[in-house]
Structure formats: structure tokens, C-alpha cells
Amino acid sequence: MSEFEDLAENYLQCYGKNELPFGKMPVLLVIDAVHGYLDPGCPLYAPVRFEEARQSIVRTIEACRSMGIPVVFSSVCYSTKNGNNGGNWYKYKLPQVLNTYDEGNPFREFAKGCTPRSDEIVVIKQYSSSFFGTSMSSVLTGLGCDTLICCGYSTSGCVRATVLDAMQHGFNPYVVREACGDRHATVNDNSLFDMQQKFSEVRSEKEIMTLLEAAVKA
Predict the structure, then answer these.
(1) pTM of the model
(2) Cα 147 → chain centroid
(3) What is the mean pLDDT of the chain?
(4) Catalytic status, residue 145
(5) Is 70 exceeded by the pLDDT of residue 114?
(6) Do you know which InterPro entries this protein is assigned to (predicted)?
């Protein structure tokens, strides 16, 4: 038995093949889809992966809008001097990256095709999870959400943290595989694999569209 086969058997023994239900009231959450990830002048930038994900994000947003499915956005913003509302994460660990999200920095503007409409909700955060210290749970409850479709940047960071908290707040998280981006394919794919095993359903863009269409018709 190969190492991979042994690993697959171990995961199956531990996590099984259970699946979260896809409900009748899905909401799309677009996580941190900002210009900085796509601009070579920004430290957030990485070639290929983020642009590929942006194209899928745009398609997913457009599809949800056309079907009348609510679209919610989350984004980071530091509005205090030296990012004090970002705590030690900003002050010590990642100041050279997180200052990208300082209020007024053009890098934190939404990426092309990912700009919220005037009737769509934007939840501002200071940490990785879109739920931590925000009104996200109340927003989703107000929308009647039972299934949260997640996409955005980065897969191993803010997407993963948000997906974990979505599960912990009682919303069944589904992740759009192609609509998530990270700095390297291995990091991206490992994070998607881990989320699928433990606390979400990771599905292709095509599969998500099929699920959404069925929910709308139900």
C-alpha cells in the first residue's frame, strides 16, 4: 500500500463521508477580494493564482445576483493610527502586509468585478475571520441564511478562518474551489482538502451552480 493510499484510508476512517446539507436559503460571502492581491506593487500580490480565482469569483457573484441569491462582502480596514485596532497581528506579526488595509490605501479597494452594489452588505473586519468581532452572524441570520457559500482570499488565511467560524455559528459552509486563491498551489490545495475533511463542503464552481439552481427552484 502506497503512502497516499494509507493516508486516504486513515482520513476515511477518521472523518468518513458525511456531507453537510445544502439548504434553501444560501448566501454568497466574498472574502477580502481586494485589488492588492492582483497588483504587483502590493506585498499581497502573487502571480496567477489570485487572478484565476478572481475570474471565478466574478462569475459566481454574477450568477448569484441573477438568481436573486444575496451576496455579502467582507473586507479588512484599519482606521486607527498605526493599525491599533489590529492588535498584535498588525503591530508585530504582519505590519508590512496589513498596512495594505489602512483606510484610504487604494490596495484595499475591491478587485475588478468584485465591487458590491449599493444594496449589498459589506462587513468590515480587523482579523482573519469574517465573524470575529463583527456583525456577520447577525447579518446572515437576518437574511435567513442556512448555507454560506464562501470564496475569496486567501484560502489558507481569511477563507479558512471564516469557514471554520461559519460552522461554529451554525451556517453550513460550502466553498467554491476555483474561486479561492493563495500564494502557492500546494498551500491552496492543502487548505481546501483540510476544510473539506473537517468543517465544510468544497465543491467546483460548476457543482455550486447546480446546487444554487436547485435551491432557487425548490
Answers:
(1) 0.94
(2) 14
(3) 93
(4) no
(5) yes
(6) Isochorismatase-like_dom (IPR000868), Isochorismatase-like_hydrls (IPR050272), Isochorismatase-like_sf (IPR036380)
